[in-house]
C-alpha cells in the first residue's frame, strides 16, 4: 500500500530514510521521524482497534500521550512483547512489529461488535457488576471471556532480553516539559549557573513550537526553538532529556523520569545499552511546564474512525506531513482549532465547513477563514456522525446559546474527517500527584494547579495561558525565580522575544453537544473512548444515585483506562455536573495519581532483577561448600549449606548420614552466619540483664550463657548465647535472620530509655568465621589442632570459652552445644576461616569428619527439643509457653524487658497454647509443618483447633519421625492423642509428649 | 520518598537510609511491675493516628544508627522539624498543647 495521505514536501520527517514496519501482519512503509500513528495514517489505516466494551471500530484521535484508541501490542519476538504502547508516542523504526490490542478475532471483523450494535440498553453502566456477579462460582469463567474479548494486551511469556537502568540525580531546577514555556524556563535558569534538567516525553524538544503558526522575532517558532535547544545543549550545567516522561512527582520534590533510550531504534536494545532508564531526581525547585491537552467535544457517534482532535490534525499535517483524510468538517468552541482547517486547506484538501458553536465568533481567525474562503457555520454544532468504519458525513444543527438544545433544522454534510475542539485542559496531572487539588477557572474553562506543598512553580499552558508570548514570559520568569529560590543570586533576566500572534476571541464553555433526541435516545456520545463511557452512561450513574465524582468514576469506569482519562475526564465531570444541576467546581475532579503514562516493569525494576535482585552474603568457607557439593538454603540474605548430598543419595539419606555422624563420630557445621554483636562498656552487664529474661549479674569471665529476648509484650523474639570476655566486654550471638533487628533493638533501648548507661554495640558478624565441631570424637579432633587450649573435661567445662590458637590461628573456642553432643564452636578471624576449615578437614579425614548443613542442624536440635526463634515461636509465645521457665528470672531488681508483659492477665491464664513434642502413631509418617491439631477429626467443620506443628522431621537416630508444636494446654495433656487432618482428606494421629526426644538428662554433651 | 535531615549527621539523606520507628515521646513506665494491665496495655499498644502534626521516631539505620524525633504533617507529608532524643518539639498541634496543659 502506498502512503496516499503523505504530502510530497514539508514536515519534520526524513524522506531519505524509508522504514518498513508490520501492523496486524501486513507490511507498510513510513519515514524516519514518523510515529507509528502518523505512519498508519499516512497509509490510510483507519481502524487501530476495537473498543473495550462495545467493540466498536476505533481510529487514531490524538497525536500524543492522551491517545485512548491507538494502543498497540508491540514486539517482533515473544521475549520483546510490550503491551499498551501508544502508537502516537512510539517512534517508527525499521522492522517494527505491532498489532491491535483490542479486537478478537480481528479488528476488522469482531464478534463483540454485534453486541455493541445491539444498543445502549444491552450494556448499561454497571453492566459487569450487575450481570456477572452471580453466581460467584462462575466469575472465573466470565472473567476469561470478558478479558479475551476486551483485550488488555499481554505480557511476554519469555524473559525480557533487555537491561534497564536507574540513575540518581540531584538538581537545582527540574523543568518538566520542553515546549515554549519549558524551553524559556530552562534558558533563564541555565544563565544562573544552576544545575538544570529539562525532560520532555516527545522525541523532539519544542512541543507545540514544532508546528506553531506564530513567528518569534520574525522567524518561524520552530527556528527559535532550535536555537534555544542548541544554546542549552552547549551548557555544561543543563541536561536535556527528550523521550523522557516525568511519570511521577513525589514527596519532597522527588521526581521519577522514565527515559526511553533505545525504544526508537530497535525491537531490542543494542548489546551493552540500557533500553530504558529511570532517573530518580531530587530537585531543589521544580518548574512544571507540562502544557495542555485539547478536549474533544462529545457528540453522537464521535468515535467513528475519522473523528479527531483539531490540534492532532495540525500536528499530523505540520510535523509528519500527513493529512488524515480528504474532506474535513471542523467543529469548535474556540479560536485555536481554526488552525487545523487552515492547515488542511493549505495541503490542498477540502475543508467542507467550520462549524462554530459560538453564535458570534469574533477573533482574528474568523477574518482569516473568510479571507481563505472557508465556510464558517456559526451558532451550530455537529450533532451526529454518519458512518461505521470511517466517517461518511455529519449532521449539523443550529444550537441555542446555552449549548444544551439542538434547534434544527438538521443539515447533512459529506466528509470523511471530523475534527473537534472543546478548548484546552491544562495538564495538571503531576501537580496533583502529592495531593494538591486543582482549581477550576471559568476564564480558562479548565482546572489549573492548586496550592502545593512542593517547591514548585508553573509556567505556560498548564496555567491556562493561551498566548505564546505570555507562555514565554511565564517560562522566563519561572526559570529565573526557581534558580533564585534554589540559591543562585546572579540570574540575568532575558528580554522577551517579539511574538507575532493573532488576537484571540472568547471561547464558549461547551462540552456535550446536544442532539435532537434526548441523550438516552440519541446514538452513543462517547466521553471516555478507552473504557467506552458515554454521556448517557454518566447520566444513568447520577440518576442511580452515584453523586460523588469518585463514585461516578467507579460505576462507569471513566478514567480507568491506561490513558487515565486524559481526554475524557473533564467532559465527564462537566456532564455529571450538568445532570446534577451543579457547577463543575462543585462536582470536582477525581484524583490524578502516578504514573502519568504507563511505565514498563523493566524500568521500575532496573538492575534489581535476576542475580542482582537481592544482595547475597557468603561465609568465608563458601568456596569449600561449593566444591563439596552443598545444596544451599537462603537464610536472610545468607547462602547457607542446606545439606551435602553424596552421589546417589536421596535428601533423606544424606540427612540420615549427616545426623549419625554428629551423634556417633564427628561432624562440622559452618555457623558463621549467626549474628554476633560485640558489647562493651562498664554497664554492659546490667544492660544484658535488662534485655534478656534471665540473670547475667554473676556470669563469670570465661563463661557463656544462653539467653531469651522478649518484647515489652513478653513474647519471645530472639535467642542466643552470650559470652563474658571481661567484666565490661561481652559477645552476643543472635539468630542468623535476627542479627540486624537485635542490634537495632539494643540501640533503641540504649538511646531512648537508658542513655545514661555506658555501653557500646557493634556488629562483628562478618569479622568472625564460626565452625561447630560436634560429636563424640570432636575433642579428639580438635586436640590435634590446638596446643595451647586444654580441652579436657575438667579444664574446659560445658558453657566455658577459652582463647588460644586453632591450626595456628588465634581463636575463641566456646564449649556450647546446639546438637546435644560434645561440641566446640571455633571462632577465628574471617580471613582465616577457610584455612582453618581446611585444616580441620585434613585432620578430620581419619575420623570421617562429616560436613552438615542447616537441615541436619534442625533435626539434631529438634531431637533435643531446642527451639528456633521465629520457627517455633511466632510473636505470640512467652518463655513460659515454651516450657523455658528456667530461663526467666524473677529475682532481678530491674523490671527487664518482657517481665511486665508476660505477667499480663492473658499471659497467665490457663489453657494457653504450649510447646510440646509430638510422636506420630505410625513412626514413619512426618507431619507437614503448619498442620492444625484437632481433638476429634470427625467433628463437623469448623473443627475446634488446638494448635499447629512448628517443626517436624524424620530422625534417623531415633528411627522415627519427631515433631514439635503448639497445643492448647499442652503441658497438661501429656500422653493424649491429637489429630492432624491433611488437605488430601487423610488424618495423622499423634501422641503428645515431651519435646526432648533424646538424652533428656543432657549427659551426652557433658562427657 | 522523603528527604530527611539527620540531626546527628547534619545532612539531608534519602528516606531509604532511614526506618520509621513509631510514635515519639512514649516513655517506658518507671515502675512497670506496679502498672495495671490497662496502663501497661496503653503503653504497649495505644498510639495516635492524627491527621496533621505528628511526632514520630526515626532511626538512621543505614547511616549513623542514631534514633531521633521528627515532627511531620501526616496530611502533606511535610517534615516540620527534626530533633534529637531527649529534646522536645518546637512545633506542636493545638490538641497536643491542650493535652500538655492539662497533664
UniProtKB/TrEMBL annotation, chain A:
Aminomethyltransferase C-terminal domain segment(s): 913-999
Domain SoxA A3 stretches: 523-606
Family indicated by similarity: Belongs to the GcvT family.
Residue ranges occupied by any GCVT N-terminal domain in the UniProt entry: 621-892
PANTHER family per record: AMINOMETHYLTRANSFERASE, AMINOMETHYLTRANSFERASE, MITOCHONDRIAL
InterPro entries linked: 2Fe-2S-bd_N, FAD/NAD-bd_sf, GcvT/YgfZ/DmdA, GcvT/YgfZ_C, GcvT_C, GCVT_N, Sarcosine_oxidase_asu, SoxA_A3
UniProt protein name: Sarcosine oxidase subunit alpha
Keyword Oxidoreductase in annotation: yes
Keyword NAD in annotation: no
A Gene Ontology molecular function term of the record: transaminase activity
One Pfam family it belongs to: FAD_oxidored
Keyword annotations of the record: Aminotransferase, Oxidoreductase, Transferase
Gene Ontology biological-process entries: tetrahydrofolate metabolic process
TrEMBL record, chain B:
Pfam families: SoxD
Domain of life where this protein originates: Bacteria
GO molecular function: sarcosine oxidase activity
Example GO BP: tetrahydrofolate metabolic process
InterPro entries: SoxD (IPR006279), SoxD_sf (IPR038561)
Protein name, per record: Sarcosine oxidase subunit delta
Lineage: Bacteria, Pseudomonadati, Pseudomonadota, Gammaproteobacteria, Cellvibrionales
Amino acid at each position: 500500500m502506498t502512503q496516499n495521505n503523505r504530502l510530497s514536501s514539508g514536515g519534520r520527517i526524513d524522506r531519505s530514510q524509508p522504514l518498513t514496519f508490520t501492523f496486524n501482519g501486513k507490511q507498510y512503509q513510513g519515514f524516519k521521524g514518523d510515529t507509528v500513528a502518523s505512519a498508519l495514517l499516512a497509509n490510510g489505516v483507519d481502524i487501530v482497534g476495537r473498543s473495550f466494551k462495545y467493540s466498536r471500530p476505533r481510529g487514531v484521535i490524538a497525536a500524543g500521550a492522551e491517545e485512548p484508541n491507538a494502543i498497540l501490542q508491540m514486539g517482533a519476538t515473544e521475549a520483546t512483547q510490550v503491551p499498551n504502547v501508544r502508537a502516537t508516542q512510539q517512534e517508527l523504526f525499521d522492522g517494527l512489529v505491532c498489532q491491535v490490542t483490542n479486537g478478537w478475532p480481528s479488528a476488522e471483523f469482531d464478534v463483540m461488535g454485534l453486541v455493541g450494535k445491539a444498543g445502549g440498553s444491552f450494556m448499561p453502566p454497571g453492566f459487569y457488576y450487575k450481570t456477572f456477579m452471580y453466581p460467584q462460582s462462575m466469575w472465573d469463567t466470565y472473567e476469561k471471556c470478558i478479558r479475551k474479548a476486551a483485550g488488555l494486551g499481554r505480557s511476554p511469556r519469555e524473559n525480557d532480553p533487555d537491561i534497564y537502568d536507574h540513575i540518581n540525580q540531584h538538581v537545582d531546577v527540574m523543568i518538566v516539559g520542553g515546549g515554549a514555556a519549558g524551553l524559556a524556563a530552562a534558558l533563564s535558569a541555565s544563565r544562573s549557573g544552576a544545575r538544570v534538567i529539562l525532560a520532555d516525553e516527545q522525541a523532539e524538544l519544542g512541543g507545540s513550537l514544532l508546528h506553531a503558526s506564530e513567528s518569534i522575532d520574525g522567524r518561524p517558532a520552530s527556528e527559535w526553538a532550535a536555537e534555544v535547544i542548541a544554546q542549552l545543549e552547549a551548557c555544561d550545567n543543563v541536561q536535556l532529556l527528550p523521550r523522557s516522561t516525568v511519570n511521577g512527582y513525589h514527596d519532597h520534590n522527588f521526581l521519577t523520569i522514565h527515559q526511553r533510550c533505545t525504544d526508537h531504534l530497535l525491537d531490542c536494545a543494542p548489546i551493552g545499552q540500557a533500553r530504558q532508564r529511570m532517573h530518580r531526581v531530587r530537585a531543589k525547585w521544580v518548574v512544571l511546564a507540562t502544557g495542555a491537552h485539547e478536549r474533544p467535544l462529545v457528540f453522537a457517534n464521535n468515535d467513528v474512525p475519522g473523528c479527531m482532535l483539531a490540534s492532532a490534525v495540525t500536528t499530523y499535517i505540520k510535523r509528519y506531513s500527513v493529512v488524515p483524510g480528504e474532506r474535513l468538517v471542523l467543529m469548535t468552541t474556540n479560536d485555536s482549532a481554526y488552525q487545523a482547517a487552515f492547515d488542511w486547506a493549505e495541503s490542498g484538501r477540502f475543508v467542507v465547513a467550520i462549524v462554530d458553536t459560538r453564535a458570534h465568533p469574533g477573533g482574528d481567525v474568523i477574518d482569516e477563514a473568510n479571507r481563505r474562503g472557508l465556510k464558517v457555520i456559526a451558532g451550530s454544532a455537529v450533532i451526529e456522525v454518519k458512518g461505521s468504519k470511517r466517517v461518511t458525513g455529519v449532521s449539523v444543527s443550529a444550537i441555542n446559546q446555552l449549548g444544551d438544545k439542538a434547534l434544527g433544522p438538521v443539515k447533512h454534510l459529506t466528509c470523511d474527517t471530523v475534527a473537534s475542539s472543546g478548548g484546552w485542559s491544562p495538564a495538571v496531572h503531576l501537580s496533583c500527584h502529592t495531593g494538591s487539588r486543582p482549581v477550576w477557572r471559568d476564564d480558562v474553562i479548565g482546572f489549573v494547579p492548586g496550592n502545593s506543598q512542593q517547591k514548585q512553580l508553573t509556567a505556560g499552558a498548564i496555567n491556562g495561558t493561551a498566548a505564546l508570548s505570555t507562555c514565554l514570559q511565564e517560562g522566563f520568569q519561572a526559570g529565573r525565580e526557581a534558580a533564585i529560590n534554589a540559591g543562585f543570586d546572579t540570574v540575568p533576566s532575558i528580554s522577551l522575544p517579539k511574538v507575532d500572534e493573532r488576537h484571540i476571541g472568547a471561547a464558549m464553555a461547551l462540552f456535550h453537544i446536544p442532539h435532537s433526541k434526548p441523550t438516552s435516545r440519541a446514538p452513543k456520545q462517547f466521553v471516555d473512548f478507552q473504557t467506552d463511557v458515554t454521556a448517557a452512561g454518566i447520566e444513568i450513574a447520577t440518576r442511580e444515585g452515584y453523586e460523588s465524582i469518585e463514585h461516578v468514576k467507579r460505576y462507569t469506569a471513566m478514567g480507568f483506562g491506561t490513558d487515565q482519562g486524559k481526554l475524557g475526564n473533564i467532559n465527564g465531570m462537566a456532564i455529571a455536573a450538568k445532570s446534577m444541576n451543579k457547577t463543575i467546581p462543585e462536582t470536582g475532579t477525581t484524583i490524578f495519581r502516578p504514573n502519568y503514562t504507563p511505565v514498563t516493569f523493566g524500568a521500575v525494576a532496573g538492575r534489581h532483577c535476576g542475580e542482582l535482585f537481592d544482595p547475597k552474603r557468603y561465609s568465608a568457607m563458601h568456596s569449600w561448600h561449593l566444591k563439596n557439593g552443598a545444596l544451599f538454603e537462603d537464610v536472610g540474605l545468607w547462602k547457607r549449606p542446606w545439606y551435602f548430598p553424596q552421589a546417589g543419595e536421596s535428601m533423606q539419606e544424606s540427612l540420615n548420614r549427616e545426623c549419625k555422624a554428629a551423634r556417633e563420630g564427628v561432624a562440622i557445621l559452618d555457623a558463621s552466619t549467626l549474628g554476633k554483636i560485640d558489647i562493651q562498656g562498664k554497664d554492659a552487664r546490667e544492660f544484658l540483664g535488662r534485655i534478656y529474661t534471665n540473670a547475667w549479674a554473676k556470669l563469670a569471665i570465661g563463661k557463656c550463657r544462653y539467653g531469651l529476648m522478649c518484647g515489652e509484650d513478653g513474647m519471645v523474639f530472639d535467642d542466643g548465647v552470650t559470652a563474658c570476655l571481661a567484666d565490661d566486654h561481652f559477645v552476643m550471638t543472635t539468630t542468623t535472620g535476627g542479627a540486624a533487628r537485635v542490634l537495632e533493638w539494643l540501640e533503641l533501648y540504649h538511646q531512648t530509655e537508658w542513655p545514661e548507661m555506658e555501653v557500646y554495640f557493634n556488629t562483628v558478624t562478618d569479622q568472625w568465621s564460626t565452625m561447630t565441631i560436634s560429636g563424640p570424637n570432636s575433642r579428639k579432633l580438635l586436640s590435634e589442632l590446638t596446643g595451647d587450649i586444654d580441652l579436657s573435661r575438667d579444664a574446659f567445662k560445658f558453657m566455658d570459652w577459652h582463647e588460644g590458637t586453632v591450626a595456628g590461628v588465634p581463636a575463641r573456642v566456646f564449649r556450647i552445644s546446639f546438637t546435644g553432643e560434645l561440641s566446640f564452636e571455633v571462632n577465628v578471624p574471617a580471613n582465616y576461616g577457610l584455612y582453618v576449615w581446611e585444616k580441620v578437614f585434613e585432620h578430620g579425614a581419619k575420623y570421617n569428619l562429616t560436613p552438615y548443613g542447616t537441615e541436619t542442624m534442625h533435626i539434631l536440635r529438634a531431637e533435643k527439643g531446642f527451639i528456633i526463634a521465629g520457627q517455633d515461636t511466632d510473636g505470640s509465645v512467652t518463655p513460659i509457653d515454651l516450657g523455658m521457665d528456667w530461663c526467666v528470672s524473677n529475682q532481678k531488681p530491674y523490671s527487664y524487658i518482657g517481665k511486665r508483659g508476660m505477667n499480663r492477665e492473658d499471659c497467665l491464664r490457663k489453657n494457653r497454647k504450649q510447646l510440646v513434642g509430638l510422636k506420630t502413631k505410625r513412626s514413619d509418617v512426618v507431619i507437614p509443618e503448619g498442620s492444625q491439631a484437632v481433638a476429634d477429626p470427625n467433628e463437623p467443620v469448623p473443627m475446634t483447633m488446638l494448635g499447629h506443628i512448628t517443626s517436624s522431621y524424620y530422625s534417623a537416630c531415633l528411627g522415627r519421625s519427631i515433631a514439635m508444636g503448639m497445643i492448647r494446654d499442652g503441658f497438661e495433656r501429656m500422653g493424649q492423642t491429637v489429630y492432624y487432618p491433611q488437605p488430601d482428606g487423610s488424618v495423622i494421629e499423634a501422641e503428645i509428649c515431651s519435646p526432648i526426644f533424646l538424652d533428656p538428662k543432657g549427659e551426652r554433651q557433658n562427657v | 520518598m522523603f528527604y530527611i535531615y539527620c540531626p546527628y549527621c547534619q545532612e539531608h539523606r534519602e528516606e531509604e537510609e532511614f526506618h520509621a520507628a513509631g510514635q515519639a515521646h512514649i516513655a517506658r513506665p518507671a515502675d512497670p511491675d506496679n502498672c495495671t494491665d490497662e496502663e501497661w496495655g496503653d503503653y504497649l499498644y495505644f498510639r495516635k493516628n492524627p491527621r496533621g502534626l505528628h511526632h514520630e521516631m526515626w532511626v538512621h539505620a543505614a547511616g549513623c544508627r542514631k534514633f531521633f524525633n521528627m515532627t511531620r504533617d501526616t496530611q502533606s507529608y511535610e517534615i516540620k522539624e527534626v530533633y534529637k532524643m531527649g529534646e522536645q518539639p518546637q512545633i506542636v498541634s493545638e490538641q497536643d498543647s491542650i493535652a500538655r496543659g492539662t497533664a
